[in-house]
Fold this protein.
Amino acid sequence: MHWMKGVHVFATSRKEKAIEEALSVCATYQTDFGNDDVDADIQLHIRRQIQDDPKLAAWPPTIQQEIEQILGSRANGMFRWAVCQLDAIHKCVNLDILRKLLRNLPKTLKDTYQRILCSIDEECVDIALKTLQWLTFYARPMSLDEIAEIVAIDLTKDPKFDDARRLRRPEDVVSSAQALLSSYRSRSRPII
């Protein structure tokens, strides 16, 4: 592979044995940044999100500090975990719901993803599953309009493509598994 000579790739991930083993075959150098540095970045991100997101910024300053302190102390180097918790907090409509959520935060990223998947409405599970499968294996980022078309395809049924299965509002796919999908600005913009 002479065309790759001089190419350097920097990859980061959670510290998990399976990931380390998979990367060890191609990595020439591995380092551990340590949770203190990562946790400081996570804390900064949480603070900025609370300041910049109008819904989070609407909480009284003492509640904002509580959110920041709890998420920052429990992230344990898991940036994605903190982002998913902020997404869940964003949906809280009153202080009682917020405090219940903060008391019952999932401990791991796996538990967080499990909570997200379990919160998908039963009627939308097939749509969310199909969307996640396509996003995982598609060669390029997909737009919401493309996903609206893809969910209309079911190879086990006749007709294979049924307009009745097409999403009328493509942005609905994001709301079904919001924390697993990036936000978007327009229907034609890729979602990951």
Summary: Confidence is low (pLDDT under 50) at residues 183-192. The longest helix spans residues 35-52. The chain has ten helices and no strands. Residues 18 and 35 are 19 Å apart (CA to CA).
